[in-house]
């Protein structure tokens, strides 16, 4: 007998039929003698609908009221799922986050879980019940309803699995696992059997939207076995997200590259001929940070003559215009001189893999592959398990496909081995 925490996302509970199908799936696990805690999201589109309703009434609602509102989406799906289970003869009880004792801080709309009371859930499980818990929500010390940030039901699932010491946290979603890259762009993308927490975090923050980043961090911190699976197909293994291996022996066996992430959601800005003196970088980026704009890649050239340098960085596309404005109106007048260039038709493509730690030459191979396709590299940044390049947006898909093939990730290559 195992204890599973199973989380079903919005599309998996998006209609009455889908909810009934989830109930059938849960029932099968229980019929096999397992204990199940189910965490559900709101029906797909529901959270957006609620946020939109709020904006029609008040464009700056207090975060407390916003949480009060958006947390209702999950209350609908927990009760409907419990009813569907009961209809199949499975004893089930639904609970809101507050009822089940998911204690959070008071940071509305992005609250963090501090503690979970497990006694009541445990005794329900021991009574043979399936416990259905609302994802995405909790309660602060004063009893106010809080939410955990968009996509937060994943975090509820992992946190419950950690608190209950579950055998596995299973995230059911509309894809059947984590892929080497987006199959819509590269038809040869294939599902990974396993991926490490570290790689998953890099892929998630680079734009692969399979799991909420915080849920993956949580799983890594508390060593929760986490599996991503399809809620639509039965029998697949999905992808198991495992703790990082520090074992050198093991890492020699690992593929160099596990996945390729990409995004066209950034824009690049360059300040030419800025004075090369201490404090310049912070004088450029300070006003941008003050405007709460997140900066991703940063490159500063070595000043050839020692006096002037070029400074390039990227921001989200949505922040491009405002960043331009800040540079024009605040930074350039402050620094004096400096020509401004901007480009919002760029893409960032990143290779991710713990295997690259112990191997040199990944970067040069990446650059060669892109050069062979006549793709110009505009910026580069690296970390221990990742190499990212900025290229023109129009070359993004070609670049991803060429790299996917060159690094041996294509489906056919693997099957032939
Ligand atoms: N319903 C919430 C959202 O759409 C939480 C979730 O689905 O995980 O963000
Ligand atoms: Mg989600």
TrEMBL record:
Q: Where does ATP bind?
A: 7-10, 173-174, 179, 184, 209-210
Q: Please verify whether the record's keywords include ATP-binding.
A: yes
Q: EC annotation?
A: 2.7.2.4
Membrane spanning segments where?
Answer: none
Q: Which UniProt keywords apply?
A: Amino-acid biosynthesis, ATP-binding, Kinase, Lysine biosynthesis, Nucleotide-binding, Transferase
Does the keyword tRNA-binding belong to this entry?
no
Provide the ACT domain boundaries. Answer: 269-354
What's its top-level EC category?
transferase
One biological-process term from Gene Ontology?
threonine biosynthetic process
Residues binding substrate, per UniProt: 47, 74
* Catalysed reactions listed for this entry: L-aspartate + ATP = 4-phospho-L-aspartate + ADP
One family from Pfam that matches here is ACT
Q: Name one GO molecular function term.
A: aspartate kinase activity
Q: Which PANTHER family match?
A: ASPARTATE KINASE (PTHR21499), ASPARTOKINASE (PTHR21499:SF3)
Q: What is this protein called?
A: Aspartokinase
